[in-house]
Amino acid sequence: MGLSLRDPSLLKDQCFIGGTWIGVPEVDVTDPASGEKIAAVPNFAARETRQAIETADRALPEWRSRTAAQRSAILRRWFEAIVDATEDLALILSSEQGKPIAEARSEITYAASFIEWFAEEGKRTYGEVIPSPRADARIVVIQQPIGVTAAITPWNFPAAMITRKAGPALAAGCTMVLKPAMQTPLTALALAALAQRSGIPDGVFNVVTGRARDIGGELTSNPTVRKISFTGSTEVGRLLLQQGAATVKKMSMELGGNAPFIVFDDADIDAAVEGAMLSKYRNSGQTCVCVNRIYVQRSVLDEFVAKLAKAAAGLRVGRGTDAGVTQGPLIDAAAVSKVEEHVADALAKGAKLALGGKRHTLGGTFFEPTVLVDCSADMLVAHEETFGPVASIFAFDEEEEALRLANASEFGLAGYFYSRDIGRVWRVAEALECGMVGINTGLISNEVSPFGGIKQSGIGREGASHGISEYLEVKYLCMAGV
Ligand code: ADP
């Protein structure tokens, strides 16, 4: 445990159930930059998950019956505790996940923003009064917390994917059992420690680490759990949807993407390069809204490629906690193999390298920032999320062609385009088949906007006022005899 934290008690090696830290640390958590062990966490399975669900169920009546303002005050303290612990949380996050420390700090700020936002939104879960078709009746609609909820989160945003679910759930009056990714459980446990200190009552927020299949099996089959919120791969999302069908659970799914990024000939090319850099290489290309396919209109292709390759060559690859590093390692060996496979497939089918293309000389799971040109629709990079630092560039001639190519995907999470023509901006924004569109920007995520996908990228929205609806049930009261 070599992390030098200001508050070493934030580094937890036990699970958090019912306000108690339990379990034997068994599974190592390693630093992807070095392979070194940071700590270990329990390898819990179905039995402990059931215990966590029962605890969350017992805590529910009291938490639900508090006023929204009371819950809000406690969540506000959690928000402030996260902000105050930014440096320690960022260090834990960067060490277990690999992203540069500056990106880790930004993620903590982003993560905290969901707690603050939903602490406020919890006070605004308004109902309705609907004009009645009957003279003797009045129609009233109220919103109530759905009950015990479960969250299953990925490793690419070890803090934000948790607060984006726990914030609205707790603000709405629900309790939660969280299963974080086993690559990055330490950030989740540190957040739980801060939740406890902030006065979140025992049992309201619980964290279980261990065997994904067993924990997921219990969370999806236990009838007490009324809602599952998942962020991860489409493959696991489909499985959870199937498993949850037996008990008809409400489900939110944030799944894979395959984001197109279109650069039209009227774009500000320097701005487009800047947006592509942010959206492609952030987190080493390991975000679900990362650009996967870059479509550039032929007349501006050479300029765009030259400028992007130059900018990407300026990235500094290294250990995320080292000063000046702007691109960390990939999460594990499997991630590197997938990136290698995508590059090899593209080269075999006629693509060319404008930059990079192989494992970095640093070894381990480091990969060179890469730019591929002359990509085509038959390549893996066109169909699958590469989830690595590879910018795949495709040429196009007409607006209709760009839209057809961009929409030729089973996914529909984020899309981006650069244009200064107002008519084109509206046409393309409306025609892109995705849940979120970045227009002249590569950065779209924040707590006030509804994040989510269409097609096989997901169900439901997180953030904005929509985010809390996912944790509320609508109840209609028909009040007759007036
Ligand atoms: P990734 O490819 O990003 O790791 P996954 O979908 O595999 O995405 O992982 C996202 C989350 O889903 C992680 O917390 C992981 O442990 C969990 N997970 C993976 N398989 C299952 C499963 N069978 N049941 C429940 N959760 C699972």
TrEMBL record:
GO CC list: cytosol
Domain Aldehyde dehydrogenase: 26-476
Record flagged with keyword Oxidoreductase: yes
Keyword terms, alphabetized: Oxidoreductase
Alphabetical list of Pfam families matching this protein: Aldedh
Transmembrane spans: none
Organism: Sphingomonas panacis
Annotated catalytic residues: E254
A GO MF label: succinate-semialdehyde dehydrogenase (NAD+) activity
Record GO biological process: gamma-aminobutyric acid catabolic process
Protein name: NAD-dependent succinate-semialdehyde dehydrogenase
UniProt entry tagged with the keyword Acetylation: no
Superkingdom, natural source: Bacteria
Family: Belongs to the aldehyde dehydrogenase family.
